[in-house]
């Protein structure tokens, strides 16, 4: 399908001759009988505040093909936000848009064939208006709206426009990528290509809960408000980095399959990216076509390449992917083949077979013995082997702990033919393709001369640096790539990286402003070169070697969940070990629960429930969905940070020992955690698993309900596991008693259906009794013996089931 571009001729002065009446190019409303011919004028309507224009918009592929569209009047590129006929452009000579006597808005081509119509028929008093919101509406004689463009979005959503179960956003370049609500009430991105269909956002490897979504709200509504907040009924939230009123914004699903929020600079007329759905572009399906591989350039931008022994099908179109330069016949001798390794490479889905706990040699043998196998992915640490007979959604990701091996006939050169086809890539650098030698891929060459290898690597690096610099100049200077796209890819690639110690010294002003201190180290406030505010944690007593430390923190850096503090990068130089996190504005939960007894920082019940639910979701993600199974080991209010909107974000996860997903327990050499929140198994020398976090969460949940510190000490005697002062009214006289006695008293209170007198008295009775009861029941169950404690995903589900709709935006 042709892409839309704006040509300067599109706003030539209008001297239009109309069939039945004359319409000024600057009017916002027309009545029945009005018509506009494309070669007599381009603009039909302009919104009252002139933000939007509606009329004929030229196709980027032809100066004689036009669409009936709505666009931003003052944007430099006249950005289109809606198109009536995206698949059927009309001729630039004689085509016409008319509001006929029946009240039907009709687009006709030069031969009088109908290219599009509103299919309305409300009579001669019907009017068409373009509103300040960008909504094109048809009103009947009473002023009632009988049709609106907001109900039929194309690739863009405007503020106040609803994305619902009845509509979707579709990329306009190829129509393959779709943003829509699935049958499970979750907002998703789908690649609906000519050969395959697959969901790629949120992660298809995990369920809705694990992705931080809920399936229980069936309203299926998402909307961008005027302040720059994009909220969905499944719990997804995107907030513009420049949030606030008075800025023109849009959400668009772009040609590369990602959806982004854009903000318009009113003075320059240029767009900047202020939010996006997929953070790592190579996760987008269909980006490089069949057999194609998406990887990140040294500058961090995504680009497409062909595997060794493959070449582009169409040098100008990556949608068509790559094709082999060879053929494999069943029955060929195994000795005729070689395997070429692509480090950190993988192809998502379409596994021929999967095996666990086998050697690389055994995985290689399985692929050799199958004539259908054309490559395999192998993860050494776990011995995981996935053989492939179809290759889609390929990517090379530096932190992927596996490699892909291509099966090629020995007669085929293993040098990637992509180097000979500098076609379009999936980023603004669409002409650069990585040139890789076969020797750089081959693992089992025992006769490599290291001197030659080093010389070759140096030459290769110099050549690639030359092409990178040249490509940057040619593409961004000579071809004037929009600044918004450049900034967008900078944002994509700034998610996780290694910092130098000097960078962090400068960012923190020589570690001047201390934010907090804990058992793992001291946290300082910092400002990076791009003005991003961060929290820099200076770790103490780190005995891991640099390679082991690097491996563990890069794993943590891949973890991304709305209720976990995001790690931006790390520093490992000599004895210096530092972690760089996102800065969370509202400090930690303990400051609001325990610092003083005044009301100036009092959390409302709605905020408390939201914090409890968010914390449960974050821990459920770590326990059940994370890239590796992670036990936090130090869940407490001090490690629950609060955003500006009082969303919970768990800090310091991943600093404990990382465990294999299928391990039954963790083997720690010393106790970890904070006195009062530690499960009994720590002091009883029992095996440690995720249930220690469940216990800690139960204590935190009680503290959220009571507003009091319920744990102040721990001993080996289970009857004295933590001492507390029970809030007034919990027992007669409100005297301090043993923690477990308090738990027993609460159990009895729940069994008798008594009033929950333990809820924070500062709330003065303003709380949801059903939610409070559920929270207390969950907390008590968390403090039970380990085998009887619920899992964090069960807890999150139970909390979501009593989530009060009052705490959702009003339009859900």
From TrEMBL:
Signal sequence extent: 1-22
One Pfam family in the UniProt entry: B_lectin
Residues annotated as binding ATP: 538
TM region positions: 451-475
Annotated protein name in UniProt: Receptor-like serine/threonine-protein kinase
Location (main, coarse): membrane
GO CC terms in record: membrane
Residue span(s) of domain Bulb-type lectin: 29-151
Gene: LOC123078772
Catalytic activity: L-seryl-[protein] + ATP = O-phospho-L-seryl-[protein] + ADP + H(+); L-threonyl-[protein] + ATP = O-phospho-L-threonyl-[protein] + ADP + H(+)
Apple domain segment(s): 330-412
Family matches, as InterPro entries: Bulb-type_lectin_dom, Bulb-type_lectin_dom_sf, EGF, Kinase-like_dom_sf, Pan_app, Prot_kinase_dom, Protein_kinase_ATP_BS, S_locus_glycoprot_dom
Positions of the EGF-like domain: 278-316
Name of the top EC class for this enzyme: transferase
All copies of domain Protein kinase, residue ranges: 509-811
GO function term, MF aspect, one: protein serine kinase activity
PANTHER family: OS07G0415500 PROTEIN, RECEPTOR-LIKE SERINE_THREONINE-PROTEIN KINASE
Keyword Kinase belongs to the record: yes
EC number(s) from the headed UniProt entry: 2.7.11.1
GO biological process per UniProt: recognition of pollen; response to other organism
Keyword terms of this UniProt record: ATP-binding, Disulfide bond, EGF-like domain, Glycoprotein, Kinase, Membrane, Nucleotide-binding, Receptor, Serine/threonine-protein kinase, Signal, Transferase, Transmembrane, Transmembrane helix
Membrane disposition: Single-pass type I membrane protein
Organism: Triticum aestivum (Wheat)
Family the UniProt entry places it in: Belongs to the protein kinase superfamily. Ser/Thr protein kinase family.
Locations listed in the record: Membrane
């Amino acid at each position: 399908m042709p892409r839309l571009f704006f040509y300067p001729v599109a706003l030539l002065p209008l001297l239009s001759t109309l069939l039945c009446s004359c319409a000024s190019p600057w009017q916002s409303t027309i009545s029945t009988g009005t018509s506009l011919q494309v070669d007599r004028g381009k603009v039909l309507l302009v919104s009252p505040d002139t933000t939007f224009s509606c009329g004929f918009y030229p196709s980027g592929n032809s100066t004689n093909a036009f669409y009936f569209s709505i666009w931003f009047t003052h944007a430099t590129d006249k950005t289109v936000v809606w198109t009536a006929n995206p698949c059927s452009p009309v001729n630039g000579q004689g085509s016409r848009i008319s509001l006929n006597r029946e009240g039907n808005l009709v687009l006709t081509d030069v031969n009088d064939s109908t290219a599009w119509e509103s299919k309305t028929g409300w009579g001669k008093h019907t009017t068409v208006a373009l509103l300040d919101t960008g909504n094109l509406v048809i009103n009947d004689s009473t002023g009632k709206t009988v049709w609106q463009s907001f109900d039929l979005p194309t690739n863009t959503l405007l503020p106040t426009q609803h994305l619902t179960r009845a509509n979707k956003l579709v990329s306009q370049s190829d129509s393959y990528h779709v943003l829509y609500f699935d049958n499970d009430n979750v907002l998703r991105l789908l690649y609906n290509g000519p050969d395959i269909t697959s969901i790629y956002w949120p992660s298809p490897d995990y369920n809705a809960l694990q992705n931080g979504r809920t399936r229980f709200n069936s309203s299926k509504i998402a909307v961008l408000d005027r302040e720059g907040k994009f909220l969905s009924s499944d719990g997804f939230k995107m907030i513009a980095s420049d949030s606030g009123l008075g800025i023109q914004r849009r959400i668009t699903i772009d040609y590369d399959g990602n959806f982004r929020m854009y903000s318009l600079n009113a003075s320059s007329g240029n767009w900047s990216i202020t939010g996006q759905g997929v953070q790592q572009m190579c996760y987008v399906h269909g980006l490089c076509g069949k057999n194609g591989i998406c990887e990140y350039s040294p500058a961090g931008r995504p680009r497409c390449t062909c595997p060794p022994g493959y070449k582009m099908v169409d040098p100008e179109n990556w949608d068509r992917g790559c094709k082999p330069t060879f053929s494999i016949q069943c029955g060929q001798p195994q000795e005729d083949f070689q395997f070429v390794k692509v480090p950190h490479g993988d192809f998502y889905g379409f596994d021929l077979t999967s095996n666990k706990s086998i050697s690389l040699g055994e995985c290689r043998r399985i692929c050799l013995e199958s004539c259908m196998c054309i490559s395999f992915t192998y993860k050494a640490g776990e011995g995981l082997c996935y053989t492939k007979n179809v290759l889609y959604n390929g990517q090379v990701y530096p932190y992927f702990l596996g490699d892909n091996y291509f099966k090629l006939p020995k007669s085929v050169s293993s040098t990637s033919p992509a180097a000979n086809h500098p076609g379009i890539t999936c980023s603004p650098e669409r002409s650069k393709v990585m040139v890789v030698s076969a020797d750089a891929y081959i693992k089992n060459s025992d006769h490599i001369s290291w001197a030659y290898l080093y010389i070759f690597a140096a030459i290769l690096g110099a050549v690639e640096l030359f092409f990178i610099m040249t490509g940057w100049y040619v593409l961004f200077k000579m071809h004037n790539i929009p600044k918004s796209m450049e900034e967008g890819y900078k944002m994509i690639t700034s998610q996780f990286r290694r910092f130098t110690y000097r960078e962090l010294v400068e960012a923190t002003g020589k570690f001047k402003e201390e934010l907090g201190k804990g058992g793992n180290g001291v946290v300082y406030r910092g400002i990076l070169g791009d003005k991003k505010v961060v929290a820099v944690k200076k770790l103490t007593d780190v005995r891991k070697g640099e390679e082991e430390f690097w491996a563990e923190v890069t794993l943590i850096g891949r973890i991304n969940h709305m209720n976990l503090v995001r790690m931006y990068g790390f520093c490992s130089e000599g004895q210096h070990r530092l972690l760089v996190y996102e800065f969370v504005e509202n400090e930690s939960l303990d400051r609001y629960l325990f610092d003083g007894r005044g009301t100036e920082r009092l959390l409302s019940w709605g905020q408390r429930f939201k914090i409890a639910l968010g914390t449960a979701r974050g821990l459920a993600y770590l326990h059940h969905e994370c890239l590796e199974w992670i036990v936090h080991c130090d869940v407490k209010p001090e490690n629950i940070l609060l955003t500006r909107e009082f969303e919970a974000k768990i800090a310091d996860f991943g600093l404990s020992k990382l465990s294999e997903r299928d391990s039954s327990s963790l083997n720690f050499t010393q106790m970890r955690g904070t006195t009062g929140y530690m499960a009994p198994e720590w002091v009883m020398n029992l095996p440690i698993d995720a249930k220690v976090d469940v216990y800690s969460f139960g204590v935190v949940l009680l503290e959220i309900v009571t507003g009091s510190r319920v744990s102040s000490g721990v001993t080996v005697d289970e009857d004295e596991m933590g001492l507390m002062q029970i809030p007034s009214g919990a027992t007669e006289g409100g005297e301090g008693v043993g923690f477990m006695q308090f738990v027993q008293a609460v159990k009895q209170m729940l069994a008798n259906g008594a009033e929950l007198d333990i809820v924070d008295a500062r709330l003065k009775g303003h709380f949801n009794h059903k939610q409070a009861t559920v929270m207390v029941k969950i907390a008590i169950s968390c403090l039970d013996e380990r085998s009887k404690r619920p899992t964090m995903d069960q807890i999150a589900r139970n909390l979501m089931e009593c989530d009060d709709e009052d705490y959702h935006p009003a339009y859900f």
